[in-house]
Design a protein that fits this description.
By secondary structure, this protein is mainly alpha-helical. The protein folds into two domains: 68 residues; 29 residues, no CATH class. The protein is 58% helix and 0% strand. The protein has six helices and no strands.
Length: 106
């Protein structure tokens, strides 16, 4: 919010437009709200989607630098030799497909 107020100090950008442009989340919704409140929706749309691009591009760099991630690292069910479908949510909940199936009574 403070960064939005700083952006709003520019002569060509209103304080409302600056604050909505740098508010996180809901880019399309914020553009619609800006239109209703009388702000400049073009500035809000450009800044919102530039933020999305910046996060998308910087995420691999951050993952590699901070967490030591690499492109050849494999984890999860594939690393243990389990089938790919066990990585899906129902497979994770069951652990193994037989534990979810009903067992015959003896």
């Amino acid at each position: 919010m403070a960064a939005g107020l700083l952006l709003g100090r520019r002569a060509s950008v209103s304080a409302l437009t600056g604050m909505l442009a740098l508010t996180a989340g809901g880019a399309s919704g914020l553009v619609a709200v800006t239109r209703e409140l009388g702000g400049d929706e073009r500035v809000v749309a450009v800044v919102q989607y530039l933020r999305v691009v910046l996060v998308t591009v910087s995420m691999p760099v951050v993952a590699g630098a901070v967490y030591g991630a690499s492109a050849d690292a494999v984890s999860g069910p594939e690393a243990a030799g389990a089938p790919w479908y066990l990585g899906l949510p129902p497979g994770r909940a069951c652990g193994w497909w037989r534990s979810c199936s009903p067992r015959p009574s003896r």
